[in-house]
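Researcher: Here's a chain I'd like modeled. Treat it as a single chain, no partners, no ligands.
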Amino acid sequence: MNNQASIPELTLRCEEIRKRLIEIIYKAGAGHIGGDLSCLNTLTALYLRVMNVDPKNPKWDLRDRFIMSKGHCVEALYSVLEAKGFFEKELLDTYGDYLSPLAGHPTIEVPGIEFNSGALGHGLSIGVGCAIAAKMDKKPYRTFVLMGDGEQGEGSIYEAAMAGSNYKLGNLVALIDRNGLQISDTTENVMKLEDINQRWTALGWDVHEVNGNEIGEIVDCLETIDYTSSKPHLIILHTTKGFHVSFMENVLKWHHGVPSKEEYKSAIEEITHRIEELKKKC
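Model: Modeled as a single isolated chain. Structure tokens:
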């Protein structure tokens, strides 16, 4: 059920989704915009190219599973689910409104969302359960879990990592949005994470590092992984917080900042110009 869009097409779609993301956060007056922007390329690659999902049948038994462990960046997920066709524009327009089903963290009331998430550190444990279930039921679906780098301080992640290796879950992919910033400071000042690669390799995982700002690199990695192997897979996505909005990039306040009217206009103009240039190449 996946859409084999080309890399140029995916790049264009991602910028269109980026523009939509800025619009809904500005309208709602809330959102975790910095992390949304750093993981948007990954979500676009997963939903519009890599994962087997069917918007017309969200509970299809053989669908790939996706868990947004860094659930505070739900605006990016909502925007990609809209782009994939899981729900209409009218629903996403309600984000931030009273009684809207679109909450500030993923909930299963929203089409396309598998689990309530956002209590940091829990997503990988759920993903391990999904991957074990697929093996027990002899079903081919894969499970993808997106975590934040600030989230890596949660001890439950490493319990899940040991279980993933122990049960030889080659059908499980964990992804870390490695943008280097969390709510209060850099990750290395709050809780040193490096060397992430060595740590997860020692835990028995198949570890890859890619430029998470480049959709082509993300797709290449996800499409060359051996999902039948005896090792679960970790992808460290080196990204930029606030990616592709120039004044937001690597600026701590945009962890959950909301643009002013002038900043909103500037961001939309910047993205629109990029969209127009990309359209000439597609």
